[in-house]
Amino acid sequence: MSSNTDNSVSGTTGWKPSGSPAPRAAVPNFPGPVGPVRPPTAARERKPALAALALLLVAVGVLASVYLQMQAGNRVGVIEVTKRVPQGQQITSAEITEVMVAEDSNVNYVTWAQRGLLARYTTQTDLVSGTILIGQMLTTEPSSNGSASTMAVTLKSGQFPPSVEVGDTVNAYYVGPPLGSSSSTTTSSNNDVSTLLSSTVKIVDLPESGGSSLGSSSSSGNVFEISVDKSVVGALLTASAEGDLVFTSGAGS
To answer: Is a pLDDT exceeding 80 seen at residue 251?
Structure first.
């Protein structure tokens, strides 16, 4: 009786479960693997200390480069002796050259810009080729042998090289009427003679141009201050007074 009752309640014949099982979820159809699968890797560890060190090294390199450039710019032209100069002698322009050295306030270099002042000084000691000239090597005292004399002579335009400079060593010639017989004279076409008086005349000071160029035709006379051996002072003064003194470049020629 109970079975009929159950069947009538359910409205159907035979036993039915109280609930249907949940439907199975559909399995997605993934395509097969196309390549090897890379395993996951750990995130890289950041190292701020190394980055800071790299930046510091870059900054140091930049500063070093700037410093070297600044040091290279702090150079000055100084005088280097190119020939041996004995003690007590003047240094001429033919015996020097310009070299660049690092500027140093502790060294009393004689700069290239001061080369025109050398005629006022003599050497304190023997100087050899390659010597960098400093102030302590020079003195204003006269030559040690006492044979040199400073004097003034007057020359006309055309009687000296236009390019002559302070410190140059030049030849001094008498060019005029014959001064008696001499085996060292050379007679010119106008009967004037040319006699070498000295090959070691040093130019101490140049004449002032007075507004005109040195040796121009407008200059009636140009007064040179020179240093010569005392033995030729009289001959040079006489030739200068007579207007027959001539300077030529290339001492000893």
So the answer is: no
Residue 195: give the domain boundaries. 148-248
In three-state secondary structure terms, 108 is coil
Of 208, 212, 195, 198, give the one whose Cα is nearest residue 251: 198
Cα-based distances in Å from 87 to 128, 139, 142, 145, 159? 11, 10, 11, 10, 32
Does some domain include residue 226?
A: yes
Paired tokens of 147: 């044979």
Tokens of 115: 């080369």
The reply to whether 114 and 152 lie within a common domain is no
Q: Domain end: 111, 139, 167, which one?
A: 139
The values of phi and psi at residue 229, to 5°, are -70, 140
The pLDDT value given to residue 8: 47
Domain boundary residue, one of 121, 139, 157: 139
What is the three-class DSSP state of 216? coil
φ, ψ dihedrals at 108, nearest 5°: -90, 70
DSSP, res 134? B
pTM of the model: 0.42
Q: Are residues 193 and 144 in contact, defined by beta-carbon separation less than 8 angstroms?
A: no
Q: Tell me if 154 sits within 8 A of 246, measured CB to CB.
A: no
Task: With beta carbons less than 8 A apart as the criterion, state whether 194 and 172 touch.
Answer: no
Q: What is the pLDDT of residues 22-78, one digit of tens each?
A: 566 555 555 555 556 666 665 565 677 777 777 777 777 777 776 666 555 688 899
Residue range 172-219, pLDDT digits in tens? 999 988 865 444 444 445 678 889 999 888 887 888 754 444 444 444
Number of domains in the chain: 2
Contact 89, 118 (CB under 8 A): no
